[in-house]
Write a structure and sequence with these properties.
about 650 residues; alpha+beta; 24 strands; OB fold (Dihydrolipoamide Acetyltransferase, E2P); D-amino Acid Aminotransferase, Chain A, domain 1; Helix Hairpins; 24 helices; 6 domains; five-stranded mixed sheet
């Protein structure tokens, strides 16, 4: 095998692996700039050798469809666009013709088909030849009309996207940092291809039309007229601008400023000829249509000095290299760190402390390193995990080298236990999200729960870390200090013992009359005597305290063991709450009031239920019917309050 052919195969493997990770797994293992560079190298080698492999990304329009959705072949192949970053090249491409310049939206391309004014089919681009049928999902897109004025046959193409504002709202609802979506495109792709259209509807997917395939009209031979016609049919269309040789550059300049405030994800611009018949006459190459071209932003690049490589831990055991450099201004913001993604990129860039590097924002958003000018290659790969100290291991995913911590008991792999420990119903420490905990673990500040209460000694370092400052550190330390005052049931729940949720923690605490010593010294027989505690839970509980010494942790806390005997007055009484409330703010508040008095609240009416609380006693709801069938007493909220007072 010649050197060139060997390199071709190597490049194909790297690029296909990166494409699969990005489009299917939603993970980015190489930067956009690096991908484009390797793709261009592959093109040149294929031209030089006249060798093109069947699985080359230069021959495949998109990645293979890999879901259980129905598949359908497109009537004509959906090609990708040729691209340039050169404004003069774009101007030369347009020549004396009139053109349309529009945003290149970063989402999922979808083809809609209408018959007799009704939406009958929606198909994704898929691999360019075969797409996935997503008709039920397209019907719940936020802005897609299911009925339009035009009653003929209509086929149009557009981009399904999730706006940045909606993306941020969705991510804010996810506490687990590893479960947060990386970018709107990944979220949109997953949302559009859901098997359950209810999930699609909740994601606020928008559709922006960008071309008409078949509508039986000439539109005065103008694409701009076709776009205006689509708007008249009720579609949102991608924002477009009429351009010529005279105003093309000024329009690009205008849009380069506007993109920073654009709520719709965009990774460039698209220029196409306005003349429909002329466009048709141009045909296409095997990969690109000749009537359109994509313009990718030429990234603003700045030189800076690499100060350190920070190894950021993750819950999967992966240690991610993060470049920390002297702050620079890029696209109007100050940037001082960028992900290096993995060991392969770190080695390829030959990074070293003190190196002069070039950094940019990919698509004007994500900081990346484009080049290392000095290449001192002196970064030492950590031999030990910064969190648990275990010996690290280099693994290979396809052609990508990754640094891993193999220790299954590494604290970073157990961040769920730490986030439970600081959660609202446990120790209630504000300011310690999973992402923050991982950052502090990466610095070696947190190995055990006890270390959280010793963060004061690291405050000067923490306030200089990314995402922190004087005020946030002060607030965090204040919240930690406040959390030291706790109760036995909160502490018990915070430990993450299997099966011991908030309710069972309260039951056990009440059984032991809030005595922490008694709680950790319970025998299996005593645990089984508590209503709601079964064999598995009792054994897990007993084994936990047999294997774990919590003496040091308890010594850092002030546990309020005050116990009022009145708390047993509703003992053995089981309640179910349904319907709206008037006296209590919500069901949780009423549930807490019942449990304080020794009662138990469950979600379903059974033969063990004593009372169903429902302000609408005559309701024909399922729970009311079930209660009547089982002869369970139905009481109002006021009756429940009287019952609690009378029991006292």
């Amino acid at each position: 095998m010649t050197h060139d052919k060997k390199r071709i195969i190597e490049l194909i493997n790297i690029l296909n692996s990166a494409a699969k990770k990005y489009y299917v797994d939603g993970d980015e293992i190489i930067s956009n700039l690096e991908y484009d560079k390797l793709y261009d190298e592959l093109l040149l080698l294929e031209e030089k050798t006249n060798i093109t492999m069947g699985n080359s990304p230069t021959q495949n329009v998109g990645y293979e469809v890999m879901t259980d959705l129905p598949k359908e072949r497109h009537q004509s192949k959906m090609l990708s666009l040729d691209k340039t970053k050169d404004r003069d090249e774009l101007k030369s491409w347009l020549g004396p013709k009139d053109g349309l310049l529009s945003w290149k939206l970063d989402g999922l391309t979808v083809v809609l088909t209408y018959e007799e004014g009704k939406l009958i089919k929606a198909v994704t681009r898929g691999n360019g030849e075969i797409g996935e049928v997503i008709t039920s999902n397209a019907r719940v897109f936020k802005n897609v009309p299911v009925i339009i004025p035009y009653k003929g046959n209509l086929t149009l193409r557009g981009e399904a996207v999730i706006k940045y504002s909606d993306f941020e709202k969705i991510n804010e609802l996810i506490d687990n940092v590893d479960m947060k979506y990386k970018n709107p495109r990944n979220l949109c792709s997953g949302s559009v291809r859901q098997l359950n259209s209810k999930i699609t509807a909740e994601r606020n997917v928008n559709f922006y039309a960008f071309s008409v395939g078949d509508a039986g009209g000439g539109f005065n031979n103008s694409r701009a007229e076709a776009m205006r016609w689509l708007k008249a049919q009720g579609f949102d269309v991608v924002e477009f601008f009429n351009v010529s040789e005279e105003n093309l550059e000024s329009t690009i300049e205008k849009l380069s400023i506007e993109i920073s405030d654009l709520d719709i994800p965009s990774d460039g611009l698209v220029l196409t000829y306005d003349d429909i018949e002329y466009s048709k006459s141009l045909g296409s190459t095997s990969k690109f249509p000749r009537d359109s071209i994509a313009f990718k932003w030429k990234d603003q690049v700045a030189e800076t000095i690499l100060k350190e490589i920070e190894w950021s831990p993750s819950r999967t055991g992966l240690l991610n290299p993060i470049a920390i450099f002297k702050p620079v201004e890029l696209e109007g913001t100050t940037v001082k760190r960028a992900s290096v993604h993995n060991l392969s990129i770190l080695e390829e860039l030959k990074l070293g402390l003190g190196d002069t590097i070039k950094v940019y924002k990919a698509n004007m958003i994500i900081p990346q390193i484009s080049e290392n000018l000095t290449q001192s290659n002196n970064i030492e790969i950590p031999k030990n995990c910064p969190v648990c100290g275990s010996e690290t291991k280099i693994s290979s995913d396809s052609s990508t080298k990754l640094l891993m911590c193999p220790n299954p008991k590494c604290a970073a792999k157990q961040t769920k236990l730490f986030t439970l420990f600081v959660s609202r119903d446990a120790l209630n420490i504000e300011g310690l999200s999973e992402a923050t905990i991982l950052k502090l673990m990466g610095k070696g500040f947190i190995h055990r729960r006890e270390d959280i209460f010793k963060l004061e000694v690291h405050k000067d370092v923490i306030k200089e870390m990314e995402g922190f400052g004087e005020k946030s550190v002060t607030n965090l330390l204040r919240s930690i200090e406040k959390a030291k005052d706790t109760t036995p049931e909160r502490l018990l729940y915070s430990l993450g013992i299997p099966g011991i949720g908030v309710t069972n923690a309260k039951l056990i605490s009440r059984h032991c009359k809030n005595s922490w010593i008694d709680m950790i010294d319970l025998s299996i027989e005593e645990l089984l005597s508590i209503d709601g505690i079964g064999d598995v839970m009792a054994n897990d509980y007993y084994d936990y305290f047999k294997a774990n010494d919590v003496t040091e942790l308890v010594g850092l806390l002030n546990i309020n063991e005050t116990y009022d005997d009145v708390s047993d007055v509703l003992s053995d009484k089981v309640f179910v709450i349904t319907g709206s409330l008037e006296k209590f703010e919500n069901r949780k508040q009423l549930k807490d009031a019942i449990e304080v008095l020794g009662g138990k609240v469950t979600g379903a009416v059974t033969s063990k239920t004593d009372y169903l609380i429902n302000n609408d006693i005559k309701s024909n709801s399922g729970k009311n019917k079930k209660a009547k069938d089982l002869e369970v007493e139905i009481i109002t909220e006021d009756q429940a309050i009287s019952l609690m007072k009378n029991e006292q």
